[in-house]
């Protein structure tokens, strides 16, 4: 019998949600431990207790008592889940050719290295930075809109159903919590109708609903 995995999370962060969604999709049992931002030695992500789990002091982290593996960085967590628990390839590409595998990886890395960091910077300069920096906000907002445009073009292949045209994959799970941050970031999807359609469709998926509730205590909408 599979013991529950332990997902370390914070309710406001997008990255733990994507891991919860993947675990829900695969019906892998897991518990969530919430952490605070800051350096409280017992509760904070920069505190002594959490740094023993994740030396980088960021979320998520994933502990698997069934294998003894500890993963952190959302990409590493997702890939671990896929290797160990996705035996049927549910979260992987529709095909098994090298191009199919590369297509998933390139869009996964696009989200991890382009969309997510740029949206994170917009969130910071819009909502948290103590000194207004309009130049930085404009620069990062432009980069997010560039990423939205790239996704809009890709979504034409599926009419807004999924980022890879054949089916929902781990790429969609990676992207969903970040794109959904657009309102918090003060951005608009008005120019991206397929991205809007995709986001609305993702919110209807049961694994997405359950993942949000498990981490945030409420659904995606």
TrEMBL record:
Residues 97-221 form the GST C-terminal domain. Residues 3-89 form the GST N-terminal domain. Signal peptide: none annotated. It comes from the Eukaryota. It holds the Pfam family GST_C. Transmembrane segments: none annotated. PANTHER family: GLUTATHIONE S-TRANSFERASE II, GLUTATHIONE S-TRANSFERASE-RELATED. Belongs to the GST superfamily. This is Glutathione S-transferase. It comes from Aspergillus niger.
